[in-house]
Design goal:
Blueprint (H helix, E strand, L loop, with lengths): L17 H12 L12 H14 L3 H7 E4 L2 E4 L1 H9 L4 E8 L3 E8 L5 E6 H6 L8 H4 L1 H17 L1 H4 L5 H4 L9 H17 L5 H16 L5 H8 L7 H8 L1 H14 L1
Antiparallel strand pairs: 1-2, 3-4, 4-5
Helix pairs in contact: 1-2, 2-3, 2-10, 4-7
Length: about 260
């Protein structure tokens, strides 16, 4: 292979270990271009990076798409639909609004279509109609975000890892946790991540055939496998990528079998 055709690995800022993640978070917290929720808060950045990796987001994507609302990490609505549409479990998502009611129709592979709506009547009942801010300026968009959040969180909780939607949390009354409480929460999250042992490559190789069989039999998904492991261990980016690629590997094997 000559120098012109040789493929070189792309540069990535994704941390490969907890130590790298902590250093990375500290550097970003001092940057002037990070969102205000993360400036001066390496703990928040570290938690956002971890959440992002579980959702398939690179660190910088996570910081742009994960917001801290009332002390809770949440996803902006456009990131929510992007993550779900990128999952092999999603067959389709259709959204429409008739000027009064927003409707979101979604279908998960192997299940019936689900429909969620949010109308101006719902908005009035929730005390949102005419509320100063986005509900007064962009009611159609806000209805869309509510219907979308209900549908995608109900049908794809495993894909979204139970993450709330930012537009929803913004409408809830703020709970003043205090600076000390927030600092303790961030410190606790960092401490918990640091205490989890790394998952070994040997265990990955041993369990991979079993996971492939379970995914092929539609008994689980790569996302659920990752969630299960990361409740007790930390996964490297390469390990996470290997598990997420199970569906792709199965598709290649199936195509090869059909062509043989």
């Amino acid at each position: 292979m000559n120098a012109l055709t040789e493929q070189k690995p792309g540069f990535s800022l994704a941390p490969q270990s907890l130590d790298e993640a902590i250093r990375f978070a500290e550097i970003l917290s001092k940057s002037d271009i990070v969102p205000k929720d993360f400036k001066g808060s390496p703990g928040n950045i570290l938690v956002a990076i971890q959440w992002g990796l579980e959702l398939g987001l690179q660190p910088m994507q996570a910081m742009q798409n994960i917001a801290v609302i009332n002390g809770r990490p949440s996803l902006w609505g456009d990131a929510v639909i992007g993550i779900v549409r990128g999952s092999s479990l999603c067959e389709y998502i259709y959204e429409n609004d008739d000027g009064e009611t927003a409707t979101c129709r979604v279908k998960r592979r192997g299940e019936e279509e689900q429909v969620r709506t949010f109308s101006m009547t719902d908005a009035k009942a929730a005390g949102l109609s005419g509320k100063q801010g986005p509900w007064s300026q962009y009611p159609k968009r806000m209805r869309q975000m509510r219907a979308r959040a209900f549908a995608l969180r109900d049908v794809f909780p495993d894909v979204l890892r139970g993450m709330p939607v930012a537009e929803e949390l913004m409408d809830l009354p703020a709970k003043d946790m205090g600076d000390v409480k927030r600092s303790q929460t961030s410190a606790h999250a960092v401490e918990r991540l640091a205490s989890l042992p790394a998952y070994s490559d040997e265990s990955l190789l041993i369990n991979l055939p079993k996971w492939e069989a379970a995914v092929a039999g539609e008994k689980t998904t790569p996302e659920r496998i990752i969630s299960m492991i990361e409740s007790k261990h930390t996964l490297s980016n390469a390990q996470r990528e290997t598990i997420l690629n199970i569906n792709a590997e199965l598709a290649i094997e199936e195509q090869a079998h059909e062509n043989s």
